[in-house]
Design goal:
Elements lengths: L8 H4 L4 H16 L3 H8 L11 H11 L5 H20 L7 E5 L5 H7 L4 E4 L14 H16 L3 H14 L8 E7 L2 H16 L5 E7 L16 H8 L3 E2 L2 H14 L5 H8 L6 H11 L11 H13 L2 E2 H12 L7 H13 L5 E3 L10 E4 L1 H8 L9
Parallel strand pairs: 1-2, 1-3, 3-4
Antiparallel strand pairs: 4-5, 6-8, 7-8
Helix pairs in contact: 2-3, 2-4, 5-10, 6-10, 7-8, 9-11, 9-13, 11-12, 12-13, 14-15
Length: 389
């Protein structure tokens, strides 16, 4: 049996052309030796035929395994990655005083590794959970700190300290010539992006504002977030940034006003518009709408999917439940593991809990979840059934 490794760049996006050429040659050699595993790989992409296999055939197979429709497409993408890396090394973001803004710290080190030299600001108030109001920044931060302290078990003082740097950083934009927003397609990112665009529109800085907006990356099998990508990919995305102009700033304000409205109707209307200035924002807002409590059971989609996962696979540790949610069930992954744990609390500790949790003395990812009788009854009355539903 062949021991040739399958590509791992389908998670981080970085490919080496010589390595892929070597894989194609090894596959051709193994197939000519009638290696069953090699033949099985080839038959997944090329139907049986009488003509002998050529290197071009196994290059095609390798390209398809890497997520590309052809070998020339894979080769062109790798060359574009290499060119982007060279261009960044030559110039990068050093031509202007630059601030990179991201809704987390996940790419900060990768930006430095790739060769970026600008300042970095993390703004990571998780607007995808909890109350939102159209308030002045200090009042909004206070509202959010109270809520996050309630669900996290942290002190309100500590939460405020975590949030303050991000909120305060938005008041110090005048010293920059360029502001770059790095965001992906999920509701965690897009709700924060909406707020930032709204803030920027309300007090437009002199700086050039640019956006890196990502919902898929060639060759990455399941793109979840920028943090999973190799540093070279950030250099490639840098070449694709776009200017933030009036329609996108206006969309940010429209989205923020809809998110802070008393009911879902303004958000539904905005989603129905298709948000042409940034279609991925409309899709994220549509997913966010699914977190509104349903009329029949009072559950949002994440809560309902969690019950389904525990029904399908439980009893199950919290960490594994989250893994199933992210890999198989969630249509647009947006939660971090800690936020997921916070969102479980009403299901566990409510007056009529839908989930029972065991082994309280253990760290929370290892505690096991099981449906209560009430949880099974609620599930029987809902329509959620399987992955991606």
């Amino acid at each position: 049996m062949s021991s040739m490794p399958r590509p791992d760049a389908t998670s981080h996006g970085r490919f080496n052309l010589e390595q892929q050429r070597k894989r194609a040659k090894e596959l051709l050699k193994a197939a000519r030796a009638d290696d069953p595993a090699a033949l099985a790989r080839i038959l997944q992409h090329i139907p049986p035929r009488e003509t002998p296999l050529k290197l071009a055939d196994t290059q095609f197979v390798v390209a398809r395994e890497c997520g590309f429709p052809s070998w020339p497409k894979l080769k062109a993408h790798i060359e574009a990655l290499d060119l982007s890396r060279r261009r960044l090394a030559e110039r990068g973001d050093r031509d202007m005083a630059t601030l990179h803004i991201r809704c987390g710290s996940d790419i900060e080190h990768s930006l430095r590794t790739a060769g970026f030299g600008g300042d970095f600001l993390e703004f990571s108030d998780p607007f995808c959970i909890g109350p939102l109001r159209d308030l002045p920044p200090e009042e909004l931060m206070a509202l959010r700190a109270r809520y996050l302290a309630e669900i996290s078990g942290m002190t309100e003082r500590d939460i405020r300290a975590r949030l303050r740097k991000g909120y305060a950083g938005l008041n110090e934009l005048e010293r920059y010539e360029r502001i770059v927003l790095w965001f992906e397609h999920d509701s965690y990112d897009q709700l924060i992006l909406a707020y930032l665009l709204h803030r920027l529109r309300a007090r437009l800085p002199k700086a050039r504002i640019e956006l890196v907006a990502v919902e898929s990356v060639p060759g990455v099998e399941r793109f979840i977030g920028l943090g999973q990508l190799a540093p070279d990919l950030l250099a490639w995305l840098w070449q694709q940034r776009r200017p933030v102009e009036a329609p996108l700033l206006t969309l940010g304000t429209q989205a923020w006003q809809a998110l802070t409205a008393d009911g879902p109707e303004p958000l539904q209307a905005l989603v129905a518009s298709g948000t042409p200035a940034l279609p991925m924002m409309g899709r994220a807002l549509a997913r966010h709408l699914q977190e509104w409590p349903a009329e029949d059971d009072g559950l949002g989609l994440t809560e309902r999917l969690t019950l389904v996962i525990v029904r399908d696979h439980g009893p199950l540790p919290v960490g594994k439940t989250f893994s199933y949610l992210m890999r198989e069930y969630e249509p647009l992954p947006y939660l971090g593991d800690l936020m997921f744990w916070w969102l479980l609390q009403p299901l566990i500790a409510g007056p009529e809990p839908l989930l029972a949790i065991s082994e309280i003395q253990r760290e929370w990812p290892h505690r096991r979840l099981e449906l209560t009788v009430r949880g099974r009854t609620v599930l029987c009355s809902t329509t959620a059934s399987g992955p991606g539903e």
